[in-house]
Write a structure and sequence with these properties.
Elements lengths: L3 E6 L2 H15 L4 E2 L9 E5 L1 E2 L9 E2 L1 E3 L2 H12 L7 E6 L4 E4 L5 E10 L2 E6 L12 E6 L3 E6 L4 E4 L6 E8 L10 E3 L1
Parallel strand pairs: 6-15
Antiparallel strand pairs: 1-12, 2-3, 3-7, 4-5, 7-14, 8-13, 9-12, 9-14, 10-11, 10-13
Length: about 180
Amino acid sequence: MSCIRRALRIDPDTVRTVRNHLDRHVAPLLAPDVSNYARGRQRAWLQVEAPLGPTQPWRPGLASHRLWPWLVAVWRRIDPDTEPQVGLAVHGSTGIAWHRDASYAHARAALVNLGSCTFELDRARDSANGRPLDPVSLQLSGGEVLDFDCKHQHRVLDADPSRWSVVLWRLKRHPRRPVAPTRIP
């Protein structure tokens, strides 16, 4: 796997259907992001809420019997031998500053982008004092699925206020077990 590639394009009708589902069933359950690099961002964990620190517990995420199977099918078009185990749905215009994803996640991640934004990733895995050394910038309009190494620094800028995205990961082995998700339509 290279550090980033445009893996798939989702057709506009499907983008509309998924956005409508997120607006109806996930938007009412959004919560403020607790990350220092994403102040003001609204998000909802899918399946489980992964611990962002060593003492934080696993918490239930949302389990949609319609959305999650579709997301798994999208992932399997990128990697037919595995399935994602956790997702993060994000809504709105607040981006996220340069960061690497937390230690709970394997390096491979998929971004299902459902609105316009700029996605940037540092092709150099090791940065200089947190500053990217070799950034690449992708202008996204909605419907793109990116396959990327989430251990490279990345960020989102200039997101449209109506934008949704879902990031999918597989989980590394963890000493604490995940909990059962909260079911939604």
